[in-house]
Amino acid sequence: MKHRWIRGLLLVCTLLACAAWAEYTGRHRGAGRGQTMSSGATQAERGLQRGIRNGGARRYIYAAFNDGSIHVYDIDDGHREIHSFRTVGGVTDVRGVCASAAAGKFYLAHQTTNAGYVIAIDLYSNTVVWNRQYQPNVDRLSCTPDGLKLYIPCNESFTDTCVIVADAATGDEVTRLHVSPRPHDSLNSLSGDRVYIETKSSAYIAVIATSTETIVKQIGPFAGIGGPYTINGNQTRLYGNFFGVNGFQIGDITTGQVVGTAEIAGQTSVPGQLNQHGIGLRPDETEVWVNDGVGRQPFIHVFDVTVSPPQQTQDVRLSYTNPHWVTFTINGDFAYPSGPKFGGRNTDVIATSTYERVASIGPSEDLLEVDFEHGQIVRVGNQFGVGRVTKAP
Can you say whether the dihedral through the CA atoms of 289, 310, 285, 188 is positive or negative? Predict the structure, then answer.
């Protein structure tokens, strides 16, 4: 009798151990292999929290898809997708994202036909904190690094001149600033003291002081209406796509003057239109990466900006034409030139050391890096590919 009881107990223990092993291996084998949204949510509760919260430094890309879902990729594990989760329903056109390490939040702006919305997501729990509507609409927003304020352009398709300043903790509207009509992109400086605003009606970039909410400078005039742009860490240079220029122009932020133009070799610029959409400054500020556009070539072009005028040095091959955006990891080891807007193409991952495509992630241009150390968010990147040199020259 005693032996039967012992054998029965051993059998139960064996079955429990097998079940636990099957659950463990199933979870780990499934990660990154086309997991469904429901399995991604399960992994949020099991795998991701375990990996992030129990020590070690980890770098992740958080990418917003146009359905409002967020997908998380492990940068140092071959950009393997480890997690995905839903935010809210009704999202079809994401306009921009930003994040604050201090607040531990990720903000997503999306437009609808009747209004714009911003969703605030807690990065520790992957849950929606608030979801607020703004009129007339929203566009590519930015956050102050301290996590206190959001700057939300009122959308390039509207003749309104407003940039909405919102309380990042609640989404409450604080005030509205007025620039030129059709405000489109908003970029905060690394220090948070300035916001740079591009509109689809002006050849100038407006500079706003966040301490007074006033325009303190206009950079330009550039060759035409502005497109994507970026700045260096010390806020002395602005690089941007502008109508009529097949490449980029350079603005001196200190003086407000245009100081240079660089065009893609072997191509002809097309007047009266934006010749490409996408530009980024490598974090060490040695190179500007500018997307191909009217050339209809599957490239992003690299310029050395340590010399004057800038010199084109690389044509990095992509898996698509008409790339629409580009940003970098915080330390600059990878670049993410996204595919054509609404094209459904996975985003190429380029190793900046070799200028070669080494991986891909899901179809998103609305992405940035989030770094965890010992369970705490210590750094966040930027949807804009910005320079990060802030020491005195």
Answer: negative
Query: H or E segment at 252?
Result: strand 247-252
β partners of residue 348: 360
What single letter denotes the amino acid at residue 363? P
More confident residue, 5 or 152: 152
Under 8 Å CB-to-CB from 78, ≥6 apart: which residues?
A: 359
The alpha carbon of residue 332 and the mean position of all alpha carbons in its chain are separated, in whole angstroms, by 14
Alpha-carbon distances of 26 from 21, 44, 58, 322, rounded to whole Å: 8, 15, 23, 39
Token representation of residue 379: 């750094």
pLDDT of res. 242? 98
Specify whether the backbone of 82 is left (phi greater than 0), alpha (psi in -120 to 50) or beta: alpha
Tokens of 142: 């930015």
Beta strands 347-351; 356-361: pairing state? antiparallel
- The whole-number pLDDT of residue 9 equals 42
Integer Cα distance of 325 and 141 in angstroms: 15
Please name each of the domains of the chain with its CATH number.
Answer: 38-380 (2.130.10.10)
Contact by Cβ (8 Å): 104, 145: no
**Segment 250-297, tens digit of pLDDT:** 999 999 999 999 999 999 999 999 999 999 999 999 999 999 999 999
Taking only the tens place, the pLDDT of each residue in 24-71 is 333 333 333 333 333 333 333 333 443 444 457 899 999 999 999 999
In a 13 Å sphere around the CA of 254, the CA atoms on its Cβ side amount to 5
**CA pair distance 314, 152, nearest whole angstrom:** 35
Q: Is the dihedral of CA 60, 90, 342, 43 positive or negative?
A: positive
Residue among 235, 196, 193, 250 nearest 387 (CA): 235
φ and ψ at 376, to 5 degrees?
Answer: -115, 145
For residue 296, the Cα-to-chain-centroid distance in whole angstroms is 24
